[in-house]
Predict the structure of Sporulation protein.
Amino acid sequence: MKFRIIILLFACTIFFSHSVMAKSQSTMKELNHLADEALQLTKFGRFEEAKNLLEQFGELFAKQGPSSNTLTMDELRVVTAVHHEALNSLTSMTLSHEDRVKRVTAFRLATDAISSQYQPLWFGMEDTIIGSFQNVKNAALEGDTVLYNEALNDFLATYAIIQPSLKIDLSVEEVQKLDSRITYIDRYRSSFADQTWLKELEQIEKELKSLFSGINDDNTDPSIWWVIMMTGGIIVTTLSYVSWRQYRGEKKFKKSSKKRRI
């Protein structure tokens, strides 16, 4: 009887946990769909429709997002902030079409980052980020002040697209280290012609490349490993219980045989 109760409890635990995970995955799938549709509409200049979808996202995220996906407070703040910026960009009268697309893209990448454990969408911007920063280095080498400032402004705007995602996927220390270097070259632009400045740019380039070097090629669904571990736990428990029953049976048999001989 006890053995059956143990198996039943394990089965109920697996069923309940699987149901929670399925609901969580369904919610994130819907959130990602809303974010993606909003981005596509923004690209086509359909700002009012995009705004409506972002508002739907906000309502769903407030009701189910944090509780379903156990987001940390930092992740919650990042997603809330980038969602707010994207929503405001769609109603702004001063932002260009390109700037609106960039802010909604930043929101889309961050939304994906909270749910994707393997190869998040922001990895796809590697060539754009590295190429943009290479233009900064080239302008510095040429000593062209105007070209350097234009290239740096372009890089900063491009980097801002993936920055929210970095805050979600990387450690606070990693992001702060890179951000402090980028802030430094932005604040002291007039020093770009110094030799030490080129070393600083090379270091930033190295750190930017390292961001995209940690792609995990393991595409196995993490839930599969969870099920395997739970199933393995049941098997181990069952075998242990059977062995224990067998041991008790043998012990009683030996004790009974000993009494008969006496």
Summary: DSSP finds ten helices and no strands in the chain.
